[in-house]
Please model this.
Amino acid sequence: MNTLWSDHLDRLTPYVPGEQVAIPGLLKLNTNENPYGPSPRVREALVALADDRLRLYPDPEAHALTDALAHHFSLTPDQVFVGNGSDEVLAHVFNAFFRRGDRALWMPDITYSFYTTYGQLFDVPCREIPLADDFSLRVADYTAAADPEPCGVLFANPNAPTGRALSRDQVAEIARARPDSVVVVDEAYVDFGAESAVALVAHHPNLVVIQTFSKSRALAGLRVGFAVAQPPLIEALRRVKDSFNSYPLGTLAQAGAVAALQDVAWFEHTCRAIMDARTGLVRDLVALGFEVLPSHANFLFVRHGAQTGETLAARLREQAILVRHFRSPRVADFLRITVGTPAQCARLRDAFERILAG
Ligand SMILES: *Cc1c(COP(=O)(O)O)cnc(C)c1O
Model:
């Protein structure tokens, strides 16, 4: 606490991202980055723009990218909002929809921990609803009558860090049950085998679907995320954005994202490769005695009866392999491990084999 700080800062627990460190020979499986890198067309697009035009401000409305996304999802541009990473889009969502007096935001107890951080930052009371014992989300918990109504419902699908996913019908059930709340689905990992709710937006005026270019399109460094919803909700996000930063996406980010979106073959091929590697890694880890939650994401959530998550993470680190360990009590035994290339998965498996043997 510092006497020069704003009042709310000492009540704030900032989000802690997975580490980005320089260790020789490091295998980084802690932040769900994509091992294959972006489409080669992204590099071409960035190089083509790295000239005198950078003295100009970018397009504040990111028209080319918004149009490309609208076309990709068979939507109209007034149903698409882009931002500087989906984390920023989420921040705007909190500002635009969840500051409704005492009404609480409902979310799972185990989910992306940025949500409660934003709750603190934007003074949104959060009600954390426990997942079932198998870490699945019980739809009935979110459709039950409530007084007062929540201001909103927010969950990741597939969820992080569990990897478990709801079907599109289950998402629709929640949206239908809460017409006076904004229901937000964070689909950061949806391209690795889950059902997207984008097609539901046309039927649910209270539904917002958020996606990112950071995971399936391997552009975490470019910072591009987006939301899809009916025009009145998109209008609310634009109002917040234009009251905060008119130019959230640089010229390079806009052009790189368009190029990534256009290379459908690269996208499909690399997502398929990660899903195939995931199948192999599940088999290997189960053979080593791990419990592995069913994953629709580019990571696995696993635990081993013989060693704590903390110990396993520390032992992997000695072998220059980083994975993510969370301290919250319900998941402290678990590790979240990004699915890499087959060679990276093999290195992880061999490391576990040595650790568990000795
Ligand atoms: C990675 C991740 C994000 C953040 O994505 P950015 O677009 O890189 O900000 C959002 N939500 C979840 C659940 C994530 O895992």
Summary: The longest helix spans residues 264-287. Residues 85-87, 112, 156, 160, 186, 188, 212, 214, 220, 225 surround pyridoxal-5'-phosphate (CB under 6 Å).
